[in-house]
Design a protein that fits this description.
With about 200 residues, this protein is mainly alpha-helical. The protein is built from eleven helices and three strands, in the order E-E-E-H-H-H-H-H-H-H-H-H-H-H. Strands 1-2-3 form a three-stranded antiparallel β-sheet. The mean pLDDT is about 90.
Length: about 200
Amino acid sequence: MKITAIKVQVKNPERVSIFVDSKYEFSLTLDELIKHKLNNHDELDVSAVKKYKKISADGKLRARALEWLINRPHSEHEFRDYLYRKKAETDQIDGLVEEFTNKGYLNNVKFAIWFAELQARRNKSDRQIKAELYKKGVIREVVDETLQQGSVDEHERLIQLIQKKAQLSRYKNDPQKLMQFLVGQGYSWQLVKDTIANNPEYKNT
């Protein structure tokens, strides 16, 4: 078998399509093409074509994984789940985790800070934030440290949430119903009770 054409891809100029015996067989990045010293008219056997197809598939997965990862912060657990869904092999998953961790693209501490701040802006309770971070594979020490350093404390979040919910008709004149809702969102009963008692909206209720 012989390479009969090497064509730069229109949609991705950093990648080339390799044709063997006038039939498309695989694609490589320009760096991979140079690394493996492939040229037009080179002879390839079946095992070589199989090897380059594997390199091609691995490279495409790496590129998609990197694009997915830098779209927003992710935990290592989320990233491993993503690769598993893409049917990556265990050694490839471990390799990509190690590579992207070393390059700073994957960092559980940075992810925890980003995620906690995002949820705090949505007035989520510490208990809710902790539960979500645990599900995303972040260890307890990192979770606790992240919440301690939060820019908006839980009481302030609760005040903001009460002010927002108190305007809704189903809670406006029913502080007990609002308390039940807030406790269900992970806020402690005592904190909810004291905060509602000091809210002007319910002073005369």
